[in-house]
Amino acid sequence: LRSYLREENARLRRLRRFYEKVQVLHQDPEASVDNPLLAFSLIKRLHSDWLNIIYSDEATGNAQALHAGLREVEQELPGAEDLDGAARALMRLQDVYALSVKGLANGVFQRSGTDHPPLYSPGRRVSLSADDCFHVGKVAYDTGDYYHSIAWLEEAVSLFRLSYGSWNPEDRSSLEDALDHLAFSYFMAGNISHALSLSREFLRYDPSNQRVTRNVAKYEKLLEMGTGVGLAGGALVTPQPLSLPTPYALLHPLSSQPAPERLLQLGCSYETNSSPYLLLQPAKKEMVRIRPYVALYHDFISDAEAETIKWLAGPWLQRSVVASGEKQQKAEYRISQSAWLKDTADPVVRALDRRIAAVTGLDLRPPYAEYLQVVNYGLGGHYEPHFDHATSRKSPLYRMKSGNRIATVMIYLSAVEAGGSTAFIYANFSVPVVKNAALFWWNLRRNGNGDGDTLHAGCPVLAGDKWVANKWIHEHGQEFRRPCGADPWD
Fold first, then answer.
1. Residue 389: per-residue pLDDT
2. pTM to 2 decimals?
């Protein structure tokens, strides 16, 4: 009987939508079915003309053409990996910026439990559907990440409850699916009583489901054995409170100020660095920090140069890799696409190399510097805390036989609406994205040892499209350009 009623409700809803479409065709107040000619035309159209069109050979041919067109572009469309990656990006933004899941589902980018203004206010608010939230929660569920699955499935259940009984052709899941997955997530998190409550709610909608019935019996038995005790891997465990996953807790926007005596050393200046190249147009230098040495050069490139570099790199972009021992591989802690450009790729790249050499005073001739790396960070794109210099002699960096990376120049090729800052973790400060500016820092101390204070991360992009160009300069060839200091510890 329940199944029959559902089918009847679905049929009535389809008829209602059909009637509404017909109404749209007759908005003219003068066009009334009182006119027998109009009434005849309407009845004929509904009874036979529309059916003739729907079941005509032309309609079948159009459907086949549509399918053929889809097959032609299918390889270029986002796949399952892209969709799951986008779901993980939402979870990453939730963690790093402490965003409320309910707020995200409503299109509001605001921190949980605060009255501060939203971190990002889009011009057009886009809300997530119950099915959208279910998919994000399901991605977390499938990897055993019950911290996130609970938050997103709770929102999915809440939205499905509000729309229960109405049919949405875009929904691939249902309230029953969300309740089922949420109950097991709570079970695995140790909250047996809530898992039992959700499973009982599930049975109100689908009382014949034997699997969930068995789960209810198991949860009841567990609660009889001891309240709040759950199972994981077949063994009894005591539930633990959920907590924010690491290392994202390190990446919240930083606001600490340097010591007062160091504030006196910070400032802005025009620099020529004794280079003829900079005499007519000095570099606009802003000292960001003394330890570690970090400087920001404003208006380092022009809009036209930035667009040229992005255009050159576009066809060659591939998923970024990281060093793993003597190999390089993809990793979830670096989500971006990158490409490498030689200085012979375009005069703009060659001019940029000359400008970097003039500003830093370092030798960029091969093999003393790497090619220009262009990186694109899309939705939730990030790079977790890392050093640019090698911390092991097995690193592929040493294959260049030009020593370790002594310095980094990172050029911001685009602006972002929110997020994307470069956070120096141990030094406890961050630098926001400044379009066309170049960020410079020394990776190595003068004695050749790595500077631990340069541990840094690319915070996830909350809104926008972040493009950067990295130039890594090596220590060989710089012996007389950055000589050792009198202090053996520096």
1. 96
2. 0.77
